[in-house]
Amino acid sequence: MKDVYITRIAKFLPNKPVDNEQMEEKLGVINGKASKARRLVLRNNKIKTRYYAIDENGNVTHNNAQLTAAAIEALCDDKFTTKDIELLSCGTSSPDQILPSHASMVHGFLKNRNMEINSPSGACCSGMNALKYGYLSIKAGQTENAACAGSERTSSWMRADVFENEVAHLKEVEENPILAFNKEFLRWMLSDGAGAVLLEDAPNGPNPLKIEWINGYSYAHEMETCMYAGAEKEDNGHLTPWSEIPAEQWGKKSLFAMKQDTRLLGNNILQKGVDSLKQVYKKHNIGPDDVDYYLPHISSYYFKQGLYDEMAAQGVEMPWEKWFLNLEHIGNIGAASIYVMLEELVASGKLKKGDKILFQVPESARFSYMYAYLTVC
């Protein structure tokens, strides 16, 4: 089995940073009224700027596949071009269409060469699953390199026109025309962008990182759905998919908007996260003392102290000086967040040979968690 190294890292964040006062202008006002939930959500998540693939005139500037292609192109130069990539593996929560696959569309924009592609589905963990597929391919000797990416373009799912039909319908039936908090919650949380890494079977480049292992854990066998899109959640927790709902109801229910069951999220995301963290520590016989940089993907700073407290309660607290976060100025880019976090850490110049880096990426969709452990070469 071959060793696998991250040899290049890149990101692509569209347009200029959007601050909290510009958000509603970019995404649009629903029902002609400013959101009452926005300031509450922003006060809790403490995100100050994020990125949208929307220009000053409200026009879309990039789709998801274009964001991803731009990040992958940023990995390349005259010594390693897009035509040298053997495997393309791309994860996202927000593909541009149901079919073709996301990686297939990215490949179409790259216009580089015939090669293997992979499109893991899911939410935030899809970016990590994209990384693991490339890692395993190289480790098994199937390929010598792989370009792996995580990306999101959720702004298009959060624009006001996505919700207008539902608001109009609620008015018709004389119901309160205020969106449920579970729908509006994510509107003020998410950001657009893409991150990518090049994996190789040799420690090339100035800052190679050896991937020691990647592991994942799912709690779907015991947990109902928490975050979803393209479905309606019933009172019993069951999801009714869009394909079983009459087409005339899709707009009235904002069926394709992302939604979050905030009750389930708050009660479970941290406890399951630390439970899976303990499992991965046990599996590899490591603990907090074996980590120099801890990169947790958290959707909101609201969960930061809670995560630390849950670690302490379960006897595996991570000292604050080892935490590395960039949520405040980058925003929550879902599947891309861990890639962009790593890019920023490497660019900081803080890393030294032998340092150990631990990724923790949760996915609230149905409570999944992915971990990776890296060594600075």
TrEMBL record:
Keywords: Acyltransferase, Transferase. InterPro entries: ACP_syn_III_C, Ketoacyl_synth_N, Thiolase-like. Residues 120-201 form the Beta-ketoacyl synthase-like N-terminal domain. GO terms for molecular function: acyltransferase activity. One of its GO terms (biological process) is secondary metabolite biosynthetic process. It comes from the Bacteria. Residues 283-359 form the Beta-ketoacyl-[acyl-carrier-protein] synthase III C-terminal domain. This is 3-oxoacyl-[acyl-carrier-protein] synthase-3. It comes from Pricia antarctica.
